[in-house]
User: Which sequence fits this backbone?
């Protein structure tokens, strides 16, 4: 379809296939949904500077064309100058997405291939994503539900919350915001949570298989697992130990914040979820530690 | 997305999925995920209690094959599904339209994320309080104190968890004194292992 300049609310259905989505908004909100069927764009609101939609070679791009303007004058001015939009985009779940909003919010769901979200000031919400997922905001919260694959989340002053995760890798880092993380299945291989002054709360199933390292320099550390006792060593609060076979790794550290490790109900999968229908890198990534897991205790945080 | 499944409709939909053929729990989760294009992926903690309930009500049954439970619908389950055919059709229609209407879908997703995260935070905050209560003696011991009583421990569950935490702290403290020989430590480890095995046996019910 080439290039279109959109200046009023509109709905577009694209007939060409889309495998890559690039969004760049100065101000506003973008909502991306991975769903079957043709790619669709619903522009719900757009400022007088319009929005440029381009489709070429499988790449769909939705952008504010702000080249040449000095937008470091202040984020709030972007919206007032007409560079503002609210857009909902549906693309196939296999689309790789790169979503940038300078001042505003991003919601992404159902994208299984890989998603990069970059926000300067605003929140990020993610649901049912897979593959490599990277979410970064300077000032704003990051919320993720049911994300698989490799997940990296960073914010300076917002909170990070991860619910019902089946991710193989979770890296979360904040400076001042709290990190809340619930790992509800045994697939998570590497979990690394890091904050300076925020607090970390992480819950893992009681039959998890993790080597655990928790540390807080001046804050407290609490652990619901007897295998991971909290102690005070040389003025530093730490808790190290092994839950189950210890095939995965959980590290959480805070400088002045607190770290709390909680025990969730045992994962109720009757068997390990089949790895052959996940992303191919998952099986490879987990295979090394899992070789030993096969002979480890079966359930209930068994002794080593 | 989960708004579609308010008021026990997930239970009905699980029955509907089992009517297509026996499935194990993880297959049911995958079926739901596919139906919603990955937007709704219920956790095992959501699915299994409902399956257990359906089974208690005689609507599904399970067979263990190769160490995993395969659930299948019973005649009573089929009768229930037939009796509620209108409701099932309505639910199917709502699921289809919820996936087709972009703006609605967007709202559902956002509300779903917000709701799940809010619930999680509340749940973990409560659990965190319980653990802090339970393990507070551990922290006190870490600082050189040793008071364990004090807080009202009327709830037997809390008392048990607290005592378990106290045990761990006590063991850590005794070991750190360095008076026990390697043999003593081995014996103590065996004792702990046997206690743990017994506790697992009792507490799993």
Assistant:
């Amino acid at each position: 379809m080439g290039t279109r300049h959109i200046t009023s609310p509109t709905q577009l259905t694209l007939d060409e296939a889309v495998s890559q989505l690039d969004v760049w908004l100065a101000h506003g909100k973008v909502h991306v949904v991975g769903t079957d069927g043709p790619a669709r764009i619903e522009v719900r609101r757009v400022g007088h500077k319009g929005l440029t939609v381009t489709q070429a070679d499988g790449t769909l791009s939705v952008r504010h064309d702000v080249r040449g303007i000095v937008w470091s004058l202040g984020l709030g001015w972007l919206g007032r100058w007409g560079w503002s939009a609210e857009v909902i985009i549906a693309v196939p779940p296999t689309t790789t997405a790169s979503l940038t909003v300078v001042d505003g919010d991003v919601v992404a769901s159902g994208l299984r291939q890989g998603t990069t979200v970059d926000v300067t000031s605003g929140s990020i919400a993610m649901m049912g994503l897979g593959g490599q997922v990277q979410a970064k905001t300077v000032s704003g919260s990051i919320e993720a539900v049911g994300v698989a694959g490799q997940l990296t989340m960073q914010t300076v002053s917002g909170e990070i919350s991860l619910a019902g995760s089946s991710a193989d890798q979770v890296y979360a880092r904040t400076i001042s915001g709290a990190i809340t993380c619930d790992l509800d299945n045994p697939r998570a291989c590497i979990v690394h949570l890091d904050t300076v002054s925020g607090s970390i709360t992480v819950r893992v199933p009681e039959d998890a298989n993790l080597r655990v390292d928790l540390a807080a320099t001046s804050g407290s550390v609490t652990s619901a697992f007897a295998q991971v006792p909290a102690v005070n060593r040389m003025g530093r609060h730490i808790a190290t130990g092994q839950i189950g076979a210890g095939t995965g790794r959980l590290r959480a550290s805070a400088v002045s914040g607190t770290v709390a490790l909680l025990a969730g109900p045992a994962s109720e999968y009757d068997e390990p979820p089949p790895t052959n229908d996940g992303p191919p890198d998952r099986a490879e990534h987990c295979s090394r530690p899992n070789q030993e897991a096969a002979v480890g205790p079966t359930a209930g945080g068994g002794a080593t | 997305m989960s708004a579609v499944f308010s008021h026990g409709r997930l239970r009905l939909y699980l029955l509907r999925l089992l009517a297509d053929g026996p499935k194990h729990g993880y297959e049911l989760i995958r079926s739901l995920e596919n139906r919603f294009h990955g937007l709704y992926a219920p956790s095992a903690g959501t699915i299994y209690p409902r399956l257990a309930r359906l089974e208690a009500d005689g609507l599904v049954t399970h067979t263990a094959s190769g160490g995993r439970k395969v659930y299948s619908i019973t005649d009573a389950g089929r009768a229930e599904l037939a009796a509620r055919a209108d409701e099932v059709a309505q639910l199917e229609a709502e699921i289809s339209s919820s996936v087709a209407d972009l703006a609605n879908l967007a709202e559902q997703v956002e509300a779903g994320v917000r709701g799940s995260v809010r619930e999680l935070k509340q749940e973990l905050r409560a659990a965190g309080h319980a653990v802090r209560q339970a393990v507070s003696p551990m922290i006190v011991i870490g600082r050189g104190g040793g008071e364990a009583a004090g807080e009202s421990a009327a709830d037997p569950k809390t008392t048990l968890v607290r005592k378990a935490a106290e045990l761990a702290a006590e063991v850590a403290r005794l070991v750190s004194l360095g008076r026990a020989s390697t043999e003593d430590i081995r014996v103590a480890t065996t004792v702990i292992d046997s206690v743990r095995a017994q506790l697992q046996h009792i507490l799993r019910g």
User: Anything to note?
Assistant: DSSP finds two helices and 23 strands in chain A. Chain A touches chain B through 57 residues (CB under 8 Å). The longest helix of chain A spans residues 280-293.
